[in-house]
Write a structure and sequence with these properties.
Nucleotidyltransferase, domain 5, alpha/beta, single chain, 5-stranded mixed beta sheet, 7-stranded mixed beta sheet, 38% helix
């Protein structure tokens, strides 16, 4: 297959580092031929990650410090690109940048989102063009600006005999629902939305309970030692965001440190101060949110899971228990690894930009119309 080689760079809400995928695309933009050539994960330096998480919690930073952070994020993106593509095979780079703050639209106010990155600097550091700032065009058209991966899911994965669901368990849990490939519903629109927290609250709780020694619950082992308070989970499921109908998007702004404190306080009121219990309930909440959302929409035949949460044994057990009747399996079964899906999607979005092909789905984001996403930063040489 002779096509364009594109490098995708993605750092999500967890702000733990940069996933990179080198892929090749050719053929029709809506159903391209594609293959993954290489993939890597590059962690953020601990101080950089702490600062990014703090900003996401609303902690004030001086303008000079924000500028330094933007430079550090851009340099780490370049480092990740070189690790994945040491031979410089890519002809184009698609970089999501690091989300600092996401403000979904309301009836009173337009939506805005800030993905920290110096796109022109990254183009110069890598010596090739970079497409970045993927969310702003959709937001300008009244959309949520997120999630953007469902369009890529539809193009790369495609449908089966019935509805098919894809779940990403990063910092935030988000769903894609793909219509059947055959039958009367095959012309239905692709659906997708942010369900709520996946690893954001779990990671913050682990850092708190371990006094900063640990950054995440490895394979969900800590949570597996706790007890789930099902009555409290059902109470949490009645919160406004979880009852809101799509389109909807969220982030650390809503599900961050303050939200964690409230949930820990509620657990304490129920008589539980055991860290394992807290982690068990936070983990079960993510699965319960996803299961509740799937009950409201078209009922899929299977749920394909990706993201760091796919390696959390308790979370996967909870998903299988709560999503009864669904075949729950890893997206890796289709050749896209846990940490590859979103980086591959932003490689595709960059290729779509170069092709002049719209990358957003109004059925997902609620925008007035589809748009070619991203800004082009040309390498000046």
């Amino acid at each position: 297959m002779a096509g364009m080689r594109v490098l995708g760079l993605m750092s999500g809400t967890s702000a733990d580092g940069v996933d990179a995928v080198l892929a090749e695309f050719s053929g029709r933009p809506d159903r391209p031929e594609w293959r993954i050539l290489a993939s890597t994960a590059t962690p953020y330096a601990p101080d950089l990650r702490r600062s990014l998480v703090a900003i996401g919690q609303g902690q004030p930073f001086a303008a000079a410090n924000l500028l330094d952070l933007c430079e550090a994020v851009t340099e780490t993106q370049a480092q990740a690109a070189r690790a994945c593509d040491p031979g410089g095979e890519s002809q184009l780079v698609g970089c999501h940048g690091q989300t600092i703050w996401h403000r979904p639209p309301t009836a009173q106010r337009r939506g805005l989102s800030w993905q920290m990155l110096q796109g022109p600097l990254l183009a110069e550091l890598l010596g090739r063009p970079v497409v970045f700032d993927f969310r702003s065009a959709d937001l300008a058209l009244g959309g949520e600006g997120a999630p953007l991966v469902p369009a890529a899911d539809a193009a790369l994965v495609g449908g089966i005999d019935g509805w098919r669901a894809l779940l990403n368990l990063g910092g935030i849990a988000n769903l894609t629902l793909l219509p059947p490939g055959v039958g009367p519903e095959r012309r239905n629109p692709v659906l997708g939305w942010d369900c709520g927290p996946a690893n954001t609250l779990i990671d913050l709780a682990v850092q708190r309970f371990s006094q900063g020694r640990l950054s995440f619950d490895h394979e969900g082992a800590w949570a597996l030692g706790g007890q789930v308070n099902e009555a409290l989970i059902q109470h949490w499921l009645q919160e406004p965001y979880f009852l809101q109908r799509p389109p909807k998007s969220t982030g650390r702004e809503l599900f961050g440190a303050q939200d964690l404190e409230q949930r820990l306080h509620q657990l304490a009121e129920q008589g539980s101060r055991d860290p394992a219990d807290a982690l068990a309930n936070l983990t079960a909440l993510t699965a319960a949110i996803v299961a509740q959302d799937l009950e409201r929409g078209p009922r899929p035949l299977e749920l394909l899971v990706a993201g760091g949460g796919a390696r959390n044994r308790m979370l996967m057990d909870q998903l299988r228990r709560r999503c009864r009747g669904l075949a729950v399996r890893p997206l890796a079964d289709l050749g896209i690894g846990d940490s590859q899906r979103e980086a591959l999607a932003f490689a595709l979005l960059a290729w779509w930009h170069q092709q002049g092909h719209a990358g957003s789905l109004p059925s997902v984001t609620g925008a007035r119309k589809a748009a070619v996403l991203g800004l082009w930063a040309q390498h000046q040489g």
